[in-house]
Amino acid sequence: MPALAVGKSRLFAPSNRAAAWPEVVGWSLLGLLGTTAMVLTAGQLTGGTVRWWLDAHLGVSGSDAELILYGGMIALTVAWLGLGRWARGGVLTPRLLWIVGALWAVPLFLAAPVFSRDVYSYLAQGTILHLGHNPYTEPPVILGQLGQAHVLGAVDTFWQHTTAPYGPLFLEIVSGIVGVAGSHVVLGAQLIKLLGLVGLILMAVCVPRLARALGHDPVRATWLALLNPLVLFALVVPGHNDLLMVGLMVAGVTLAVERRPLLGIGVCALAATIKLPAVLPAAFIAVAWARSEPAVADRIRRLAWGAVVTLAVVGVVTLIAGVGVDWVTSTLFSAPAKVKLAITPSTGLACTIKTLTASCSKPEIAGLQSVFRGLFGALTILLVLELLRRSRSNNVARYAGLALIALAFGGPTAWPWYLVWGLALLAATPTARTVIWSVVVIIVGAFLVKPSGQLAVPRQEAPWVMLVYLVAAIAAWYTLRSGRRGPASGATVPEQSDAGASQRPAPPAESVLAK
User: Fold this and answer.
1) For 334, which DSSP code?
2) Which of 9, 181, 291, 379 has the fewest CB atoms in 10 Å of its CB?
3) If we measure between CA atoms, which residue out of 125, 107, 113 comes closest to residue 51?
4) Which helix (H) or strand (E) holds 228?
């Protein structure tokens, strides 16, 4: 099958609809084969004390099962890349990609949660809330005293003494799931995984709408955001709540771009009660909406309305959850910081210095890590503020996406799936350069976490990771400089690579967020 081709002005080779169909069917079936291999082996690799309801009992060793799993992952990744050759307007449609996405994703929603056991932590925290306790002040270990030892046993021991770092809406939903599932851990975890289906559907509906509203190709945006391996492996399979957050967040930005900014801010605020990073796009929408007014007083009024809507949504959800303001605590930031990953810039840089000078143990890197964490945190804040300063109605999705990428890298822990926060928005504003960078990041990120949930790159390899980051930063810098020599940075007309959509001009700035 033809490989992914990269040309000067367009990412994919020219094609026609008749030639596309046989390949599209072939790539779709290859992806389904990969999905099937993952589903059949995930039950044997889930780890912990829980036996998943869907376990094929292949009768192979753990290493062989893992090999089959990776074979399925590679097959699905190749299928995604092959399908991307035809992912442009005039050849495929978003609706057809929805069908392929469902074909690949739905079985993975039913598969055992590999690559992470966080879904059991969600269940434990929801159980605490369901029993009338506060998961923001009482960690899962209390379940042993509440007669819920079977739930506690499913939680990774690393997280049994950590209070909830998630929003009250999410834990309230999980509390309701606990009421339905009762003492059945697997049923509860399965229902939590299916919550992500809501987020995936929201992405399927809103990403092409957002791309179309901004004058970009909705087909390519759908392929890049919905079917990519990072979403399927790191969010769908393990059941991470980031998928629900991202779906709501993209819906909010879409509503804002479609001239309903206050509603968009409200939906993003609702997403923030799933997981806090979603509040960032709400700020970008508010700033872009305010900037569309020439008078300073009107700008202030719009910013005030944005703040009122955000606080109202968060306040109502908090009131319904009955947890008070306890959820807005340092745990939201300290819990992720407990994980020391080589791919987190602050940890990786600290570990690199210690590796080059002596060794790389946890106590030795703690001090340096704190310093670098503060440094990268400050740089992230400055970058986000600069993006906010530049935010306008015609670039709100792109700049909010870049800010979320910066937050993922500059935060205390940079798990690969955190990148989906920003990639989902950047996918709706695709240029040739954006697509190439996104594809590289997606493929690398999709294979960085082992089925056990451990990062595939040990801390001892941090110097190599930092070298890769340095090379990537230099390449990005030169890419940015070469881009500035092209059309004016304020232009909103998409590149030629957006076939189909690129034939029509982007909507003028005043038509977006104008009301």
Assistant:
1) H
2) 9
3) 113
4) none
For residue 453, CA distances in Å to 119, 214, 244, 391, 420 come to: 12, 37, 20, 37, 18
| Other residues' Cβ atoms within 10 Å of the Cβ of residue 115 | 27
C-alpha to C-alpha distance for 105 and 149, rounded to whole angstroms: 32
Q: What is the torsional sign of CA 31, 36, 37, 43?
A: positive
Q: CA-CA distances (angstroms) from residue 454 to 40, 194, 374, 509?
A: 21, 23, 25, 45
How far apart CA 447 and CA 321 sit, in angstroms, is: 37
> What pLDDT does residue 514 have?
56
Tokens 């909406």 sit on residue: 289
Q: Give residue 509's pLDDT.
A: 41
* Long-range contacts, stretch 379-385, CB < 8 angstroms, 24+ apart: 379/410, 380/406, 380/407, 380/409, 380/410, 380/411, 383/410, 384/280
Residues of the chain with pLDDT under 70: 1-18, 89, 329-334, 358-366, 479-515
Q: Running DSSP on this structure, what letter comes out for residue 164?
A: -
Angle (nearest 5°) at CA 228 between 53 and 218: 125
pTM greater than 0.85 (yes/no): yes
Judge contact between 115 and 238, C-beta under 8 A: yes
Please tell me the predicted confidence (pLDDT) of residue 506. 46
For the four alpha carbons of 404, 406, 411 and 417, in that order, the dihedral sign comes to positive
Distance CA 334, CA 339 (A): 10
C-alpha–C-alpha distance, residues 369 and 463, integer Å = 14
Asked if residue 318 lies in contact with residue 327, where contact means CB atoms within 8 angstroms, the answer is yes
How far apart (Å, rounded) are the C-alpha atoms in residues 15 and 492? 26
Calculate the alpha carbon distances from 114 to 253, 341, 408, 495 in Å: 31, 19, 22, 39
Going from the C-alpha of 342 to that of each of 238, 367, 389, 458, the distances in angstroms are: 21, 16, 32, 6
Residue with tokens 């029509």: 504
pLDDT tens digits, one per residue of 328-384: 765 566 677 778 888 888 888 888 888 777 666 556 666 777 788 888 889 999 999
Distance (Å, whole) CA 407 – CA 72: 31
pLDDT at residue 351, rounded to an integer: 82
CA–CA distance, 250 with 204 (Å, rounded to integer): 10
3-state helix, strand, coil in the chain (%, to 5): 70, 0, 30
Bridge partner residues of 92 (DSSP): 89
Per-residue tokens: 286: 């508010």
- DSSP one-letter string for 60-107: --HHHHHHHHHHHHHHHHHHHHHHHTT-SBTTB-HHHHHHHHHHHHHH
Quick one: pLDDT at residue 309? 96
Radius of gyration, alpha carbons of the chain: 23
Beta pairing partners, 449: 455
Alpha carbon distance 515, 511 (integer Å) = 9
